[in-house]
Amino acid sequence: MDEEDAPVTIDADEDGVVDAVTAQMSEHTSFIVLDQIISATAMLFTAQRIAAEAHRRGIRFLVDGAHAPAQLADPVGGLQPDWWVGNFHKFPCAPRGTALLVIPPEGGQDGQDLWPLIDSWGFADPFPERFDEQGTQDLCGPIAAPESLRDIERLWGWDVVRRYMSDLADYAERRVSEAASEVGGEDCSSPVRIPSPAMRLVKLPHGNRTPQELDALCPVFRDRILNELHAEVAVTQFDGELYLRLTAHAYVTADAIDRFAEQSIPTIVGWLRG
């Protein structure tokens, strides 16, 4: 569902998200793709309640949990989706391109109607074996992902890491929004009421640029921040507003957040005014 089809406002609470999404369901709805954590807004969707309503109506649904693995302790728990997919090259720190597909072991999809986009030697095998031999498929990611999860658990423990990420994300949102507000001369605090544990938004002043102009600006500014300021942040737009999306992990420190707020934010706001 896009913004026009499902008008979930950025300041919606849990009830508002559920109401907005379920209001789009009808007797003609047969399939739903639901983001678990929204990339553009860092919002944590109330997936369990939406999934329950989809189940009640007999609607099949796929949960896009790209940012959920490791950021959420149990991203699939309570969902019972027909399909759930999540990326392991984000918070679990596995190699790029590593992902996980989950289907219910019983009572739902058995996987026999799932096929790889590129068939190879295993085309005649049942699911999931038919996905195992796809010619030049790089198996480094699937092999490394369990080791990455175990190493972080061994070094710090995932519960400790998740608490650290959430606390640091809170600090980053407050520190960076204060800096942007001071330099930009307007309130740059985040309007998001249900943020994900380790991701936060900070609003950026952008003048009177249109949403189309902001869409074109986002990748340019992301690359410029990386190449000139040596900081990795996402630049997103939603409903005509421009945002920095900040992400915390075990390797991010409060000192790094302070430097970004003090040194980079004035430069970024200056670019937007130029």
UniProtKB/TrEMBL annotation:
InterPro entries: Aminotrans_V_dom, PyrdxlP-dep_Trfase, PyrdxlP-dep_Trfase_major, PyrdxlP-dep_Trfase_small. Keywords: Pyridoxal phosphate. It holds the Pfam family Aminotran_5. Gene3D superfamilies: Aspartate Aminotransferase, domain 1, Type I PLP-dependent aspartate aminotransferase-like (Major domain). Residues 11-178 form the Aminotransferase class V domain. This is Aminotransferase class V domain-containing protein. It comes from Bifidobacterium breve DSM 20213 = JCM 1192.
